[in-house]
From TrEMBL:
GO annotation, cellular component aspect: membrane
Localisation per UniProt entry: Membrane
Highest taxon above the source species: Eukaryota
Protein's membrane topology: Multi-pass membrane protein
PROSITE patterns recorded: MARVEL
Keyword tags: Membrane, Transmembrane, Transmembrane helix
Record-given protein name: CKLF8 protein
UniProt GO molecular function: structural constituent of myelin sheath
Pfam families: MARVEL
Domain called MARVEL: residue spans: 31-163
Amino acid sequence: RPRSHTVTTTSSSFTANLSASSSTLAYDREFLRTLPGLLMVTEIVLGLLVWTLIAGTEYFLYPAFGWVMFVAVFYWVLTVFFLIIYMTMTYTRIPQVPWTTVGLCFNGSAFILYLIAAIVDASSVTKELDSHNYNSWAASSFFAFMVTSCYAGNTYFSFISWRSRTLQ
């Protein structure tokens, strides 16, 4: 004898809220027109140059360039991550996170570690090490100092934003 199958479905308020919030993903085009947004894009482009110029050489033979690679790739990935957060306005959906403090800590640490990496990079570039890689290493140290100045600028803007938040 045939059985009848009855399927009952229920929806929770969690899934209803999730589907409603995920369908309204915001996009902030104006962020790229601000000075912090332009600096962030510049950090991404110049940071990419730093680590690709080093990655195209035999950097693994010299521990100093390993440190520069770590800093460059680590902050490049995090900067891309933060750019996506700011462009999609995800920070408005997570109000529990003190975004001004997070931005200040991120940019401040990026500035300090990139400054150290740029100095290490520049001091490690010598013609005696490997003349074949000299131009790539010299260019990477130049761009590392450029990225450092961009992070310094964003640290300043983050500090201004953080300071205005703490005074309120």
